[in-house]
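ok so I'm stuck.
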Amino acid sequence: MATRPRTPTERSELDSPVEQVLVLMRSEWRTGTSGRYLDRIRKAIEELESQAPAQQTVEVIRSINGELNTYRASTVLGRQEQLKRTAERLKAVAPVLRPDEPPFGPIGTNPASLRTPKRVVRPSSTVVRRPDEPVTVLGGVGAAVAKRLSQLRIETIEDLLRHTPRHHIDFSRPQAIGQVGRMFGDESVTLAGWITELKTIPGKQRNRVEARITDGTGWARITWFNPFVAKQLAVGDEIVVHGPLDELRGGLSLTGPEWERRDSAVLARSRLIPVYALTQGIGQKQLRRLTRQAIDETRQTLTDPVPLSVLTDLDLVELKTAIDQRHYPVDRDHLADAMRRLAFDDLFFLQLGLIQRKRATEVLRGNSLAEGEGAIPEFLDRLPFQLTMAQQRAISDVSLDLGGSRVMQRLVQGDVGSGKTVVAAASALQATRAGFQTAVMAPTEILAGQLRATLGRLYESLGERAPTVALLTGSTKKRDRTILLDRLVNGEIDILVGTHAVIQDGVIFDRLGLTIVDEQHRFGVRQRGELPSKGAVGPAHVLTMSATPIPRSLNLVLLGDIDVSVIDEMPPGREPVITRRYFGEERSPAYELLRDEVKRGRQAFVICPLVEDSELSEMRSAVAESERLQRDVYPEFKVGLLHGRMSGAEKDRIMTSFKAGEFEILVATSVIEVGIDVPNATVMMVEAADRFGLAQLHQFRGRVGRGGGASYCLLLADDTSPMGEERLQMMEATTDGFVLAEADLRMRGPGDFLGTRQSGLPDLSMLRTGFDSRTLEQARRSAMQILDQDPDLSAPEHLALRNRVRKFWSSAVSDLAGA
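replied:
not stuck anymore, here's the structure
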């Protein structure tokens, strides 16, 4: 069959010699104007001379090429300007090089493919739903979809309303296709047009769908690697697409862009389209349809619990408006108002609960442990090291609290290695000397065993007068557990160290006076309750410890009901961890540094990033990285693997093996506990470090440098944003966790601190955006004013508020009680 000859327009679009040069220049731009394509660009420009019909044009082309003589000697910005200027001059002479064809028009122009279909406007829903109904009442949500949604913590319509977007795509100002500046940059564009072609193309792995859209000024090719799109669209549909441009000679091309119909219910109300966190089997369009339906169908039943007087005083929008505009805002100003209102709600409900809890604790009578205060000076004098002033202040704070009649609720906060365990040891000793027992809880069996061993060493100097310390974990054998529990209830054990096994049924103390919780952010709400004690004693004092520095400006948010002692000094003699950044191809020196350390008999951690919001995805990332390192980088060493989908016993086994030196390198994901003390580990390598917040990077860094001598934190990043670069610079500049925490709050907002389930606190996801110190102050002031008038929120006008606060705080209990 004869091939149809292409029209002059088609030849100019696909085969223009100028366009071939432009393709090379785009590639040069993407490499960061490195000069990699310069010789090919200049050679291609020289070839244009042979096609020039006149000497005048030849001279113009030569002068264009001559301008590139200084390219390599120029700065990055200078090179970018040269490329732009060269491109404009080439486009100006392009029509002369093809005089038999139409002038060189906008890339993608194809007016012959236009057609104008009819727009369809879909009616809005009139169904009424309650927020507490299950998501299965919504259209298209059967058992399979509901199960997938549960992975996103979405089980009710209210959960869906609170599943707020990560960001929004602005579909309000699509660019004319023929006028898109296709030359440089990888920024995303928004285009709108009618589908003139639609086809499915078979592939080896999966089929792809290709479409061509046009808007009268030009055309663009759209590619999706999702065969289902072909069932959703048809020729003649008008759509809007958003995404980065690809290379396509003679035309615009987008691969896998976000898209919506121009007549969709989503675009009918908002041009800022939400982009949500997803899970496997749930797509953006599906979530948009469900959130839109949930908003529409709960409009009549959604009750605003915040009193109207508070909304009026603080100029806050009503709840219905806030939820609608948080998902589908009219513009950026409406979105900001919605985020402020929802952030206020979380802060307001949080402060109401914290203030009520603090007032209840203040009147709660506890056990005075003043009798044991005298044991502390001797204990501290016998220690083989000198305490910092910050440690001494913390011990004094705790001792004073324990000597009072009010139940202590205190947090000791300090960096990894700042000496919090000494504070715990002094506190437990005071309880022992006062005739009471102490429960010490750690989040993992390894950390519990490590903590018990540390306490034992600290008490060695006391000889026979040292407290009796025992260990209880899930791995404790049944016979040993029975003997241990008998000794505990008979008062023969002074300090019981353990995991969650300590709060299980059957664990009864004789006279429990103090509960210490290590790594408090990893524990459930029962850490602030009372463990069973047979003695006629009051509630135990509670001391919590955290190695996660929290900005001082956030202490009031998270810790409004407890007192805080900060250890902001490091013990003398501990060398700071050396932190270095490596970008792109610079990773080879980082690999060599790690190799040198291992050859010296040391060990190393390698942390893999969370590629998507999926533990399974993160596991695959870690598995692939461990295999790559073992095969291609460190075949001479043994590489281990640790990820979040392993069982607790398997994690403990691997960490114990690593500590014992059975393998040199441990590849781990970011979501699992890597806090075991491995003094021999001197290297912490973090892949894609720019994806992590400062607080998390600082926690990773704290896992090395515990054995004396130099240790290293190697931050690897292929392509980083200005904000990511600033975070990595901060990591290099300081090792002060509190300085980094304040910087993290300034740069990223409170997401790192409030985005996870903190100790006994509700879900604070709304505070990831819209939080500021002014909103916090307003929320706390409003909460105190209401509770001063109505302490238990029993007034008729506060019933809705009381119910909402109870539900808000019950999320913490239900989420953490089984922890």
